[in-house]
Amino acid sequence: MPFKKLHSDIQEKLEYLDIIKPTPFQSSSIPVIKSGANVFCTASKGSGKTTTLILTTLQKLKCEAVGNAPRAVVLVENKERAMELYDAFLMYTKHNSLRVYVGYEQLHVDVQKSEIFMGIDILISTPKSMNKLFLLNGVNISELKIFSIDDAEFLIQNLAYTALMSITKSIKKCQFVLYSEQMHPKLKRFESFFMEYSKIVSI
């Protein structure tokens, strides 16, 4: 039972939300992600990928704020998805000290830089916005522990793919977890770059 081995704060929140039993995908993926390996997670819509992303991020950060630099990054396709995921994270972080921040292209990069500088734990962003922050030294990645990509099919587009490759070149030591419905050949290519020695969980 993967939920039984999660942080007590997460278990309490799951109980409050009446989420008792993990989906088959969660049973398979959570222990592998918790092990610290780079993971390609592929499963159909509705299998619990987003909840898995949130739970494993919270687990990695031990449900508490530390320092000022982000320790988790979640990359998404666009502003709409960023806001959806931000709201989903808030359901789980409402009663702990974790600070979640959302950035996207429409929000001026200087605003993002100054707000991130104030101190965050989890950064949700789009590839273009994140890459711009990197180029302007707007985000400190020295404390990064986990980098997740939600619904990663959007990375098949050249602009998003190029932005991600640029971002990951600067990251030295970090766990990468990529979620998608199918394993596209272009996503598999990441194995030669930042997804070294990765494992695959497919349901």
Q: Could you characterize what this model shows?
A:
Pfam families: DEAD (PF00270). This is DEAD/DEAH box helicase. InterPro entries: DEAD/DEAH_box_helicase_dom (IPR011545), Helicase_ATP-bd (IPR014001), P-loop_NTPase (IPR027417). Residues 30-201 form the Helicase ATP-binding domain. This protein has one domain (2-202): P-loop containing nucleotide triphosphate hydrolases (Rossmann fold). The chain contains 8 helices and 7 strands. β3 (100-102), α5 and β4 (122-125) form a beta-alpha-beta unit. It is α/β, with parallel strands linked by helices. The chain has a 7-stranded parallel sheet with strand order 3-4-2-5-6-1-7. The mean pLDDT is 93. The radius of gyration is 16 Å and the shape is globular. It starts with 7 loop residues before the first helix and ends with a strand.
Overview in brief:
This protein has 203 residues and is of the alpha/beta class. It has helices at 8-16, 24-34, 49-60, 79-93, 109-117, 127-135, 158-169, 185-188, and strands spanning 39-42, 72-75, 100-102, 122-125, 146-149, 175-180, 199-202.
